[in-house]
Design a protein that fits this description.
DUF1989, 29% strand, 5-stranded antiparallel β-sheet, alpha+beta, Urea carboxylase, 6-stranded antiparallel β-sheet, UAAP1
Length: 238
């Protein structure tokens, strides 16, 4: 294990992680939700693209085998392990107004570190740390959450989806800037702020076998995205 950190309820984090790393998330209690953003650490104009990720892989949920594609048709990270089988790429993140309306008014001046943070505010802070801003916000991936759609198109959040100890592991396929916000899924209907600690661990991944790797060959579109990524890195000499 190279590095580990527990993101407490309402917490946030961001940092650069090199390619060829495993980033393992473990829910320390039931009901976790961690929203993530991904950028190309070498070129922050390239970032996770939700529409391309979903349409290229014919899905509205993410699990093992799926890749997180960039807006340049490359692979930022792949999901290589998953104990849940469903992670939410469509519900977005919480705002200040939504957090106040659902869980009651709080602010730092009165509650100090016990105030209830929103995903929007957490990401705003972490984006600034890397020279970015809210204009760089985009759809997030909500790890540990299950959001399904019925025949009328209404979205439903499953409050019992994530047990304590649930895990999901990403493999970085490029040098990435990863941003995390441990804040509730906006569709979670619980009235008590539902955020629990999540352990993040980074270790070294095995070299990708281009002929047999599960994520590379999960969809034909994945192969093309990986080829774009390998070509990009070859020309950069990395």
């Amino acid at each position: 294990m190279m590095w580990s950190k527990t993101i407490e309820a309402g917490g946030k984090w961001s940092g650069n992680i090199g390619k060829g790393r495993l980033v393992r998330f473990t829910a320390q209690e039931a009901g976790a939700n961690v929203s993530i953003l991904l950028f190309n650490a070498r070129d922050l104009t390239e970032r996770y693209n939700m529409p391309d990720t979903l349409k290229a892989q014919y899905t509205a949920r993410l699990t093992r085998g799926h890749t997180l594609m960039s807006d340049n048709g490359r692979v930022l990270a792949s999901i290589v392990e998953d104990s849940l089988g469903w992670h939410d790429p469509i519900a977005g993140y919480t705002s200040r107004s939504l957090t106040d309306a659902k869980y009651g008014l709080t602010n730092y001046q009165q509650q100090r570190n016990d105030w209830l943070r929103s995903g929007q505010e957490n990401f705003a802070v972490e984006l600034v740390r890397s020279g970015l801003g809210m204009r760089d916000m985009m759809p997030v991936v909500n790890l540990f959450s299950k959001v399904s759609c019925d025949e009328e198109g209404d979205m439903h959040y499953d409050e019992l989806h994530c047990p304590a100890g649930a895990t999901v592991t990403l493999r970085t396929e490029m040098d990435v800037l990863l941003l995390l916000s441990n804040t509730p899924n906006p569709l979670d209907s619980r009235v008590v702020y539902p955020s629990v600690p999540v352990l993040v661990e980074v270790s070294e991944a095995n070299v990708v076998d281009r002929d047999t790797d599960y994520c590379v060959h999960y969809r034909p579109e994945n192969v093309r995205a990986f080829e774009n990524t390998w070509e990009y890195q070859m020309l950069l000499g990395i």
